[in-house]
Amino acid sequence: MAKKAEATVEEKLRALYDLQLIDSRVDEIRNVRGELPLEVEDLEDEVLGLKTRMDKLKTDVETINYEIGAKKNLIEEAKVLIKKYAEQQKNVRNSREFNSISKELEFQELEIQLAEKNIKEFKVQIEQKKIVVSETKEKLSERDSHLKHKKSELDAILAETEKEEKALLLKSEKFQQEIEERLVKAYARIRGNVKNGLAVVPIERGASGGSFFTIPPQVQVEIASRKKIITDEHSGRILVDPTLAEEEQEKMQKMFASL
Asked: What is the pLDDT of residues 220-259, one digit of tens each?
């Protein structure tokens, strides 16, 4: 803690700008990956959804086939009963028994007709399901192939950048420990409030980096003196002079090259 308190303003500015350069390099690496991780995740969800749909369609077809089997059994049972009632009808003793058996025969014939109608409807349903299965299978194959391609792409990028990113994150943590806590908190707050994550920027052509607002000459002189930490009144970013920025960029590039 004593070491941190003894640091000069210039040392603090250099440390903060170094931290910014490290974190910006991490941002660059993550930008290279871009939307790929989300694309892969969406494709995985889509493939899973299509597989679930295929399983449901398969279950539906099995259920319909079971229903067809049940209707076929019902037809066979009805035929047995019709044969039985036809034999009974030959031996009736009166018209009441004859009419009763006739109704049973009529009912069983209607049962057969209804079952046959159901079987036809079920077969139409199966044909429709087969079309959907074929379409789903084709789409699943296409999306699965696309997923493999995107995963391969992501894996290649990760293989190139993962090691460097981990090393940079450790460096970022280490550099933060060398800077007094209030400045780290201020840096993190500014970084979180700006779109491009730049909390510490050099003066470029008389304005703060990435801004069109001109910084008054007197303020530029104060920034170049490195006697106090100055922020841009428009964006809230911490400002450093171009010379300091160039020196630190050169130093950090060497560090990045060694990772």
From this structure: 999 999 999 999 988 899 999 999 999 999 999 999 988 7
Supply 15's token pair. Answer: 């440390």
Range 36-161 classified under CATH 1.10.287.1490: yes
- Strands 200-204 and 207-208 turn out to be antiparallel
Model confidence, pTM = 0.60
Instruction: Give me 124's structure tokens.
Output: 């139409």
What distance lies between CA 54 and its chain's CA centroid?
22
Q: Which residues of 77-96 are buried (b: 16+ CB within 10 A; e: fewer)?
A: ebeebbeebeeeeeeeeeee
Q: Which helix (H) or strand (E) holds 62?
A: helix 36-89
Alpha-carbon distance values, 199 to 178, 186, 253 (Å) = 17, 9, 19
In whole angstroms, give the CA distance from residue 240 to residue 9.
11
For the chain, give every residue range classified as CATH 1.10.287.1490.
36-161
What is the phi/psi pair of residue 235, to 5°?
-105, -15
